[in-house]
């Protein structure tokens, strides 16, 4: 009688347990602390740190059954699933591991015994072939001499492209790190007699199935060409449960084993399909396994990362259900059958059965109404496709409008022998991503257009969670009766724990949910007396009158509360420091910092800041109880409560007490004691307008982080100055003094240089009808010195026109000066405009002086010479304006 898949799984564990191995549970499908993996894709993933020598294990011999998922990256089997007999998105990997215990001989012997012993798997020896790394002579000898496999059934696999250690039988974790040769075991599932390695390679795809891979981790790769021996040697093996089950159940396809057959039969009952080898039946059977196990690891469908992988698989299964003619919602119904066939590996599915079914059902409802329309559009576009290629625009339209994952569209095209323009699709998708990141979230404009006259009871002072009833739902400013999955909108409740943004305190974030739905609250705002929860529905649907739980993000709220309480302390400390004339003029209380605007006509000095910080931190250390009471307004005033907005309070007011130090009317949320604030640090003070100052501060851990950053900056400065932090001030003072001395020397040098240049310019000046005309081109001169020279020449020579140019690389700057008595006929502004027009530069100025610049330097000498003729024309009658 053939063994069931469940029996094979248990036999594997029992065999290695008898060999001294400890049975450990497989790890989660979501790798722990490993950003390199989206999902666990091999049995060795959970032991990665052990192989790297970063972690020790309590057991030297371990055996596991690991749930694996291969849907992306290096190991992406999604497109092959259903079309081949051995590929799956989800599979179970049987593995035995040795950590510096047994090595090649024992690992090979264990594998052979399990596979061939009549007590265990009882596979005929002549049906098994093996491969080894060509240079791994030890493994070759073990197979040949100890196991006594005929040499012609031992395939020696060499390096690719003559690159050492680059072989299918040399495993490595990455470009560097643990690695080693491997040996693989193949099963000949045909009746064909294969005589040698040449015939093996010729028939490998048709006759042979790799069932077990044993890796001998004995090296550490340093570079592409260099490896060194590891101090510890390990064994890492992997055998696909589905593959070995196919062998032991005498079937040629993984989809013909018991667990798949029962699933496939269950699916076929929903259709008129009689062929149990139909590709779509296989795909759905495979996909229900991966989807159920992904959800059991607390992943939900979304448009990002693991959630997107889950959504892709679900929608691919639904498309194939549609193809089979299944009209009703069906996918979630397969969970019960899956639990039944998965045996002892279904415990986690049993615990989360209802959750898995609900998520699958909601996803199917969400996608089904777009599936028909999207597939019809796709079919029409395929008929119109040029050169048998579907355009990137169509691919993107289907993805963006109907949520068709690219592999779903690709799947349909593959069936119809149509290619896809994936490159154009990817460019369009990236463009959309860039544009959407620049757009503001739509809810920022809602406050101006939504009016809700209802009242919402706020219960968030003492609670983080409460039960509520949905009163109103708005989507894009329109009142609606329900909100669907992936829609963004505003939900109004009869009561809530979410604080709506007001009084400077930002709104809470968190989630609204019930058994079937989940709405992520990204912000909370007040609309009259009501509170709007702004966000996105990610699961299910929410209708008006639905019962729902509202739960805030407690860490976010706590950060806001300590900043709010610190703001009250700051207000009181400012009044103590600067007097009772200080009043709040505005504030912001966020989760990262606080900002406080206040009236103050005094200059705020460093000593003032230090005094304020000292007062507040003393109150924090006193750990004062913060109380809030509802009082009559007059009673609150008698207690000298700060009233920030006269005539805007109701008869009953909420009053927040921090002993007698701070008493304010406030509707915001606060921490329980001042000690919760931890630390208060001002990081900025500025003037907003006349008589209005602004202080910004951080509290708690963020204040500590700010101080650490300042310390790091001081250390960096100390390093640059080559001194310890205590000497920074003296060192900088010396550097400033030295810089001033050097600057004075430079000024002296420049003055002397200018004097020489002025003499040369005067000596070489041209005279036009009694007017001195000076033009000169400098190279690599400071522009400000040109102005100095122009001003000096204008003082020394009464009637003068000066044009000085400086060229640096291919850029020039120009300064033009004209004597005051000439400006009725010639102005610097006229000259700069003429020159800039000819040279296509930019410039401007006044009658006596003007400046400009540009990049076209080749024409400058010609243009400067032409200006002399222009001036000559302008000075036809010099007696009219010359002053001697």
Automatic annotation (TrEMBL):
<keyword id="KW-0963">Cytoplasm</keyword>
<feature type="binding site">
    <location>
        <position position="670"/>
    </location>
    <ligand>
        <name>Zn(2+)</name>
    </ligand>
</feature>
<dbReference type="GO" id="GO:0008270">
    <property type="term" value="F:zinc ion binding"/>
</dbReference>
<keyword id="KW-0862">Zinc</keyword>
<feature type="binding site">
    <location>
        <position position="568"/>
    </location>
    <ligand>
        <name>Zn(2+)</name>
    </ligand>
</feature>
<dbReference type="InterPro" id="IPR009000">
    <property type="entry name" value="Transl_B-barrel_sf"/>
</dbReference>
<dbReference type="GO" id="GO:0006419">
    <property type="term" value="P:alanyl-tRNA aminoacylation"/>
</dbReference>
<dbReference type="InterPro" id="IPR018164">
    <property type="entry name" value="Ala-tRNA-synth_IIc_N"/>
</dbReference>
<keyword id="KW-0547">Nucleotide-binding</keyword>
<feature type="binding site">
    <location>
        <position position="564"/>
    </location>
    <ligand>
        <name>Zn(2+)</name>
    </ligand>
</feature>
<dbReference type="InterPro" id="IPR018162">
    <property type="entry name" value="Ala-tRNA-ligase_IIc_anticod-bd"/>
</dbReference>
<keyword id="KW-0648">Protein biosynthesis</keyword>
<dbReference type="GO" id="GO:0002161">
    <property type="term" value="F:aminoacyl-tRNA deacylase activity"/>
</dbReference>
<dbReference type="Pfam" id="PF07973">
    <property type="entry name" value="tRNA_SAD"/>
</dbReference>
<dbReference type="Pfam" id="PF01411">
    <property type="entry name" value="tRNA-synt_2c"/>
</dbReference>
<dbReference type="InterPro" id="IPR023033">
    <property type="entry name" value="Ala_tRNA_ligase_euk/bac"/>
</dbReference>
<comment type="subunit">
    <text>Homotetramer.</text>
</comment>
<comment type="function">
    <text>Catalyzes the attachment of alanine to tRNA(Ala) in a two-step reaction: alanine is first activated by ATP to form Ala-AMP and then transferred to the acceptor end of tRNA(Ala). Also edits incorrectly charged Ser-tRNA(Ala) and Gly-tRNA(Ala) via its editing domain.</text>
</comment>
<dbReference type="Pfam" id="PF02272">
    <property type="entry name" value="DHHA1"/>
</dbReference>
<dbReference type="InterPro" id="IPR003156">
    <property type="entry name" value="DHHA1_dom"/>
</dbReference>
<dbReference type="InterPro" id="IPR012947">
    <property type="entry name" value="tRNA_SAD"/>
</dbReference>
<dbReference type="GO" id="GO:0045892">
    <property type="term" value="P:negative regulation of DNA-templated transcription"/>
</dbReference>
<keyword id="KW-0436">Ligase</keyword>
<feature type="domain" description="Alanyl-transfer RNA synthetases family profile">
    <location>
        <begin position="3"/>
        <end position="709"/>
    </location>
</feature>
<feature type="binding site">
    <location>
        <position position="666"/>
    </location>
    <ligand>
        <name>Zn(2+)</name>
    </ligand>
</feature>
<dbReference type="GO" id="GO:0004813">
    <property type="term" value="F:alanine-tRNA ligase activity"/>
</dbReference>
<keyword id="KW-0479">Metal-binding</keyword>
<dbReference type="GO" id="GO:0000049">
    <property type="term" value="F:tRNA binding"/>
</dbReference>
<comment type="similarity">
    <text>Belongs to the class-II aminoacyl-tRNA synthetase family.</text>
</comment>
<dbReference type="InterPro" id="IPR002318">
    <property type="entry name" value="Ala-tRNA-lgiase_IIc"/>
</dbReference>
<dbReference type="InterPro" id="IPR018163">
    <property type="entry name" value="Thr/Ala-tRNA-synth_IIc_edit"/>
</dbReference>
<dbReference type="GO" id="GO:0005524">
    <property type="term" value="F:ATP binding"/>
</dbReference>
<keyword id="KW-0067">ATP-binding</keyword>
<dbReference type="InterPro" id="IPR018165">
    <property type="entry name" value="Ala-tRNA-synth_IIc_core"/>
</dbReference>
<keyword id="KW-0030">Aminoacyl-tRNA synthetase</keyword>
<protein>
    <recommendedName>
        <fullName>Alanine--tRNA ligase</fullName>
        <ecNumber>6.1.1.7</ecNumber>
    </recommendedName>
</protein>
<dbReference type="GO" id="GO:0005829">
    <property type="term" value="C:cytosol"/>
</dbReference>
<dbReference type="InterPro" id="IPR045864">
    <property type="entry name" value="aa-tRNA-synth_II/BPL/LPL"/>
</dbReference>
<dbReference type="InterPro" id="IPR050058">
    <property type="entry name" value="Ala-tRNA_ligase"/>
</dbReference>
<keyword id="KW-0694">RNA-binding</keyword>
<keyword id="KW-0820">tRNA-binding</keyword>
């Amino acid at each position: 009688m053939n063994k069931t898949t469940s029996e094979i799984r248990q036999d594997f564990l029992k065999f290695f347990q008898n060999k001294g191995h400890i049975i450990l549970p497989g790890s989660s499908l979501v790798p722990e602390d490993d950003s390199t993996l989206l999902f666990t894709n091999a049995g060795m993933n959970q032991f990665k740190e052990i192989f790297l020598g970063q972690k020790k294990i309590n057991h030297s011999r371990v055996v596991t059954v690991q749930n694996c998922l291969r849907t992306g990256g290096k190991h992406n089997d999604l497109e092959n699933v259903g079309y081949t007999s051995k590929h799956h998105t989800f599979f179970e990997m049987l593995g035995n591991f040795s950590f510096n215990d047994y090595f090649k001989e024992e690992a090979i012997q264990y594998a052979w015994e399990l596979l061939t012993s009549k007590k265990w798997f009882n596979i005929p020896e002549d049906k098994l072939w093996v491969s080894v790394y060509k240079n791994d002579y030890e493994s070759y000898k073990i197979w040949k001499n100890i196991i006594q496999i005929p040499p012609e059934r031992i395939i020696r696999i060499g390096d690719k492209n003559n690159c050492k250690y680059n072989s299918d039988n040399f495993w490595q974790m990455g470009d560097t790190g643990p690695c080693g040769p491997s040996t693989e075991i193949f099963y000949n599932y045909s009746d064909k007699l294969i005589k040698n390695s040449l015939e093996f390679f010729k028939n490998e795809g048709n006759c042979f199935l790799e069932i077990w891979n044993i890796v001998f981790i004995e090296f550490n790769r340093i570079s592409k060409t260099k490896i060194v021996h590891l101090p510890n040697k390990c064994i890492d093996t992997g055998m696909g449960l589905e593959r070995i089950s196919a062998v032991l159940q005498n079937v040629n396809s993984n989809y013909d084993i018991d667990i798949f057959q029962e699933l496939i039969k269950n699916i076929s009952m929903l259709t008129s399909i009689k062929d149990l080898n139909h590709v779509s039946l296989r795909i759905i059977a495979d996909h229900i396994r991966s989807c159920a196990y992904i959800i059991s690891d607390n992943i939900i469908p979304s448009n990002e990362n693991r959630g997107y992988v889950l959504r892709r698989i679900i929608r691919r299964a639904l498309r194939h259900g549609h193809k089979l003619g299944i009209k009703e919602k069906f996918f979630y119904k397969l969970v019960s059958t899956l639990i039944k066939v998965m045996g002892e590996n279904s415990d986690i599915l049993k615990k989360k059965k209802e959750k898995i079914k609900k998520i699958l059902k909601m996803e199917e409802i969400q996608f089904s109404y777009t599936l028909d329309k999207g597939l019809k559009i796709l079919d029409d576009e395929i008929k119109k496709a040029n050169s048998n290629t579907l355009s990137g625009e169509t691919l993107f339209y289907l993805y963006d409008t109907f949520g068709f994952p690219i592999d779903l569209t690709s799947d349909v095209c593959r069936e119809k022998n149509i290619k896809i323009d994936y490159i154009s699709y990817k460019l369009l998708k990236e463009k959309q991503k860039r544009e959407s990141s620049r757009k503001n979230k739509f809810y920022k404009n809602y406050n101006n257009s939504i009016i809700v006259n209802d009242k919402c009871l706020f219960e968030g002072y003492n609670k983080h969670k409460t039960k509520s009833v949905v009163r109103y739902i708005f989507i894009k400013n329109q009142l609606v009766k329900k909100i669907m999955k992936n829609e963004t909108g505003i939900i109004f409740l009869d009561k809530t724990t979410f604080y709506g943004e007001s009084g400077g305190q930002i709104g809470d974030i968190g989630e609204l949910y019930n058994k079937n739905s989940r709405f992520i609250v990204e912000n909370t705002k007040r609309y009259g007396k009501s509170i709007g929860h702004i966000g996105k529905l990610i699961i299910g649907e929410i209708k008006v009158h639905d019962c729902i739980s509202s739960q805030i993000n407690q860490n976010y709220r706590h950060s806001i509360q300590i900043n709010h309480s610190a703001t009250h302390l700051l207000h009181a400390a400012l009044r103590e420091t600067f007097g009772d004339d200080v009043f709040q003029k505005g504030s912001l209380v966020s989760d990262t910092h606080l900002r406080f605007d206040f009236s103050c006509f005094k200059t705020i000095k460093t000593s003032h800041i230090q005094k304020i910080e000292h007062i507040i931190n003393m109150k924090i250390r006193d750990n004062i109880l913060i109380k809030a009471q509802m009082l009559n307004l007059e009673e609150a005033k008698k207690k000298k409560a700060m009233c920030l907005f006269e005539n805007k309070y109701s008869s009953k007011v909420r009053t927040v007490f921090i002993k007698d130090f701070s008493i304010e009317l406030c509707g915001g949320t606060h921490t329980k004691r001042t000690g919760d604030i931890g630390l208060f640090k001002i990081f900025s003070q500025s003037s907003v307008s006349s008589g209005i100052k602004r202080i910004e501060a951080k509290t708690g851990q963020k204040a500590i982080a700010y101080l650490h950053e300042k310390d790091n900056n001081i250390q960096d400065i100390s390093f640059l100055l080559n001194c310890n932090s205590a000497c920074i001030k003296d060192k900088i003072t010396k550097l400033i003094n030295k810089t001033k001395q050097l600057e004075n020397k430079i000024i002296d040098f420049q003055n002397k240089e200018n004097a020489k240049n002025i003499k040369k310019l005067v000596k070489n000046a041209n005279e036009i009808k009694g007017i001195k005309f000076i033009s000169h081109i400098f190279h690599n001169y400071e522009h400000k010195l040109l102005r100095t020279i122009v001003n000096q020449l204008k003082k020394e020579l009464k009637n003068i026109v000066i044009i000085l140019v400086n060229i640096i690389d291919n850029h020039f700057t120009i300064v033009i000066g004209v004597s005051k008595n000439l400006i009725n006929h010639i102005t610097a502004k006229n000259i700069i405009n003429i020159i800039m027009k000819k040279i296509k530069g930019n410039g401007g100025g006044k009658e006596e002086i003007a400046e400009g610049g540009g990049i076209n330097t080749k024409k400058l000498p010609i243009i400067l010479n032409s200006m002399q003729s222009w001036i000559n024309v302008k000075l036809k009658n010099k007696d009219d304006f010359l002053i001697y």
